[in-house]
Amino acid sequence: MLLRTVSFCFAILFSTQSAIAETGKVTTFELENGLQAVVIEDHRAPVVTNMVWYRVGSADEPAGYTGVAHFLEHLLFKGTKTLKPGEFSKTVKENGGVDNAFTSYDYTGYFQRVAADRLPLMMQLEADRMRNLVLSEEDVITERNVVIEERRTRVDSDPNSQFQEQRRAMMFMNHPYRNPVIGWQHEIEALNREAALDFYKTYYAPNNAILVIAGDVYPDEVKALAEKHFGPLEPSDNIPPRVRPKEPPHLSPVTLTFSDPRQTQPYMIRSYQAPKRQSGNQKEAAALLMFAQLLGGSGLSSVMGQKLQLDQQIAVSTSAWYDSVSYDPETFGLYAMPRPGVDMDDLVDAVDQVLADFLEEGVDADHLARLKVQIAAEDIYELDDQSSVARTYGIALTAGLTVEDVQTWSQVLQEVTEEDIMQVARKVLNPKQSVTGLMLPPQAEGSQ
Amino acid sequence: MIRLFIVLWVTVVAALPLSAQIKIEQVTSEGGIKAWLVNEPAIPFIAMQIAFKGGTALDAEGKTGATNLMVGLLEEGTSDMDATAFRRASEGLAANFGFSAQRDSVRISAQVLKSNADEALALLRKAIMDPAFNDVAFSRVKAQVVSGLESDLKDPQSIAGQTLNEIAFAGHPYALPSDGTLETVAALTRDDMFAAHKAVLTKDHLVVSVVGDVRAEELGPMLDQLLGDLPEQGAELPPQVTFGASGGTTVVDFPSPQSVAIWAQPTEVDLDHPDFMPLFVMNHILGGGGFGSRLTDEVREKRGLTYGIYTYIAWLGATEYMGGSVASANGTIGEAISVVADEWKRMAEGGVTAAELDKAKKYMTGSYALRFDGNAKIARVMSGMQLDGFVPEYINTRNDRLNAVTLEDIARVAKTHLQPDGLRFVVVGQPEGVTSTE
Question: Does A221 participate in catalysis according to the annotation?
Answer without folding.
Answer: no
